[in-house]
Amino acid sequence: MSLRNVAIIAHVDHGKTTLVDQLFRQSGTFRDNQRVEERAMDSNDLEKERGITILAKCTSVEWHGTHINIVDTPGHADFGAEVERILSMVDGVILLVDAAEGPMPQTKFVTGKALGLGLRPIVVVNKIDRPDARPQEVLDEVFDLFVALEADDDQLDFPVLYASGRAGYASEDQDAREGTLDPLFKTIVTHVPEPGLDPDADFAMIATLLDRDNFLGRILTGRIESGRLEVGMPIRALDVFGNVVETGRATKVFAFQGLERVPVLHAQAGDIVAIAGLTHATVSNTIADPIVTIPIAAQPIDPPTLAMTFAVNDSPYAGREGDKVQSRVIRERLEREAEGNVAIRLTESPERDAFEVAGRGELQLGVLIEQMRREGFEMSISRPRVLFQDGPKGREEPYETVVIDVDDEYAGTVVEKMAQRKGEMTDMRPSGGGKTRLTFTAPSRGLIGYHGEFLSDTRGTGIMNRLFDRYGPYKGPIQGRQNGVLISMEQGEAVPYALNMLEERGVLFIAPGEKLYEGMVIGENAKPQDLEVNPLKSKQLTNFRSTGKDEAVRLTPPRRMTLEQAIAYIQDDELVEVTPKSIRLRKRYLDPHERKKASRAAA
Asked: 204-288 is classed in which CATH architecture?
């Protein structure tokens, strides 16, 4: 049976996962009577809710005697390092572009990596049935993008298909509105080369994905670059410098069939397989026959740029909403995450019962916290802080490239806000349809918490994409939150009368009847300093009769924050209390005397 390995590249929300579902259905991977949920490849609940692919996944279909391995790649910058390694497993890429939105900044990043590796793209203009589709202009934009990314003549001579992933058809004719995906299968088989690797050399492969199984332990996925792999065969792992990481046996070998990992007895050069049997080997290690001494060149893992402290929840309401509250349980869960996710680094924090978790961005760490909270964990989370490093000229901080697409009328506001956050504009150009594309280079520190503000400033119409760029000179202090907070001085349930009195002080985060405790943040002060208030105070009884309607309190609805907004909002002396049911803001020190002592020490 002939073999093809292909990756799908697309921007978030351009329909990649839906298209793969249809490839499954039409290749017979799913039986006609098999009930399959929509967007089967986004198996993670958070992926379905956020409409993004977080975890790279391997899958396969068979079409007329050809085995096609399809790798679904993450589209978001926080998971960008996955993309580079995955592309080293394939011999061709399908670039999926929305027929209305065209190629987006994130597409540029991933496509640049693919072209740099010499892969020849197949361009699929998806969602061709959208009423605002503009296929010809989008195709021109794709061509311009390839030229800008220095594609060679072979890569510029790419096949184009027009498709609707949801309706399940693809065609060379942009006016087609029905059919099947056979034209896409045919293009993959004719345009993507066979792996062409040596099956008679010594066995070697690079681990590109790491997974964990409760029964089998570590599972490493990659493409066999040379030789044959048999179950039970002795193997060893080498790091990028050729040092031996460990020696062991391939206790289990899996190939991919549809969404399933199926055990096989042997595999050979070109096959994408998953191996169990090693306990320390990780992504970018070479897994090989013990006689192999030179590792295969591999993409290094991007450094983490951001860290947060995950601590035990010590609020008065700890343990009431979750069942996983002890530091031992939190540590085990984080260790498991760090083992399977190479972008996360875990260290003990100097604070008691706390762990430092470093990653590549707020989204990535926010996703981890949300997953843990759904599993029943309670934790206190600190404000994110960037990780500095020592450079030749002293302290250096991480910088990101930020590409923003925004309606013309909001461009001025965005430029002003980015300047306040020490961002420097490197490019500004009209992108058509009354929109402007702005490109900045900015310190990661300045971007913490900006996304929510950006969406408010652009009335939800702006699109922002961020990408780690480099470490550079420290940019000096960046202005933080302008307002102080309202802090509860009592424990109990919030009283409508008291909240009504407090509304003139600022914006409230809580509603009447909510449980509060001393030191909890219940609102934002209209002034720069923090203010301690009593939200439990009831109205004094008087001798005067009054009509009931004057007694009725009409409160403004409270401002509710998502997890990401809460984490971005807090200052260094504050924490976010995360439980399966609640997200509360609080002061690090709940007791006012402790707070004063700590602020004097900090000053």
From this structure: Beta Barrel (2.40)
